[in-house]
Design goal:
- The structure is a single chain.
- This protein has strands at about 20, 45, 65-70, 90, 110-115, 135, 160, 180-185, 190, 205, 215, 225-230, 250, 275, 295-300, 320, 340-345.
- The chain has about 350 residues and is mainly beta.
Length: about 350
């Protein structure tokens, strides 16, 4: 059974000392004014209902710190939302917002703002006042240009900008020195800007499904980076030092235009996952033997004609995908890979 309305007084909820009210997954169109009686309410979850407008009664809840309005049909944020001065988390994802109001900047205690899946084209300058923000998700919108004001959010740890139309990143993004996760997949980026490499705490960077043709040598500045995803770009070459990042353990370079790998990849001591599938790689460098911690290696859908004996030095490999290449034989030394649980050789001319 789903609710289409809520009778607060009938359920005597106003007499309870509420910390949270969860009304998710119903068909609620509006809330009664009596919800104002829940003066101790700190969390209100209205996810997945039929709300078109945000009920005004919500803005008279003085203790509210968490508000989830995701998966509704809300078209705008009213000015009265600025009354929720204690709000820490605001989630309005998967709605129909076309713009953000300037008065959003009054919610200065926000630490989490989730707005993915709307129709936003830009950010108001007032967002620069939300200096306590640690997580901001603007993915799946229509943002073409990221405002310089993003650089004011210096406490950000996590920034989601995927599935937009971003062509360039403002240099002010380098002010986000606490950023650990940056998601930019499915945009219109053509390069990895040099200044982006100056984010000292970045652990995870996803730039997949863009139009990147060049990676700056400054990628070596990502000394804390653990995961780098460049899948589905237009890369023909990659800098040698991308394999020398001291903490990198996951590298995704599938679906590019790579023909060769750097000769010296000997410093990749922490890498445990490499995806090089769907490129045009003809051969592997002997130095691949030095990535001794590697557990997953995907070389499928390339142009490999042989596998070097040195690959047998990767004794920690558990999955090796060599399908859809031009292999006619395999070195006997692969028998040393005793940890392998999956070896895919399909679609090769192996005799």
């Amino acid at each position: 059974m789903v609710l289409i309305s809520v009778d607060i007084s009938a359920q005597n909820l106003q007499h309870l000392e509420h910390s949270g009210l969860y009304l998710t997954g119903n068909q609620i169109i509006e809330l009664p004014e009596s919800i104002c009686n829940l003066t101790k309410l700190v969390s209100l979850n209205l996810n997945n209902n039929k709300l078109i407008n945000i009920p005004q009664c919500i803005f008279n809840l003085p203790q509210l710190t968490q508000l989830d309005l995701s998966n509704n049909q809300i078209t705008e944020l009213p000015e009265s939302i600025s009354k929720l001065r204690q709000l820490n988390e605001l989630i309005v994802s998967s709605n129909k917002l076309k713009k953000l109001p300037e008065f959003l900047g009054y919610l200065i205690h926000l630490t989490k703002l989730i707005l993915w899946g709307n129709q936003l084209k830009h950010l108001p300058d007032s967002i620069s006042r939300l200096t306590e923000l640690k997580e901001l998700n603007l993915s799946e919108n229509k943002i073409g240009r990221l405002s310089d004001c993003i650089g004011s959010l210096t406490k950000l740890n996590k920034l989601g900008l995927s599935y937009n139309q971003i062509k360039n990143l403002p240099e002010s993004i380098t002010n986000l020195t606490q950023l650990t996760e940056l998601y930019l997949w499915s945009n219109q980026l053509t390069e990895l800007p040099e200044y982006l490499c100056n984010l000292p705490q970045l652990h995870k960077l996803n730039l997949s499904s863009n139009k990147i043709i060049n990676i700056s040598d400054n990628v070596s500045n990502f000394t804390e980076l653990k995961s780098l995803d460049l899948t589905s770009n237009n890369l023909e070459n990659i800098p040698e030092n991308i394999f020398n990042l001291p903490k990198l353990n996951e590298l995704n370079l599938g679906r590019n235009e790579l023909k060769t790998l750097p000769e010296n990849i000997s410093q990749s001591n922490q890498l445990i996952y490499i995806d090089l599938s769907y490129n045009s790689i003809i051969s592997l460098p002997e130095s691949i033997k030095n990535i001794t911690q590697l557990k997953y290696l995907d070389l499928s859908n390339n142009q490999l004609e042989n596998i070097p004996d040195s690959l047998s030095n990767l004794t920690n490999l558990t999955q090796l995908n060599l399908s859809s290449n031009q292999l006619t034989s395999l070195p006997e030394s692969l028998a040393k890979l005793t940890e392998l649980s999956k070896l895919d050789l399909s679609n090769n001319p192996v005799s």
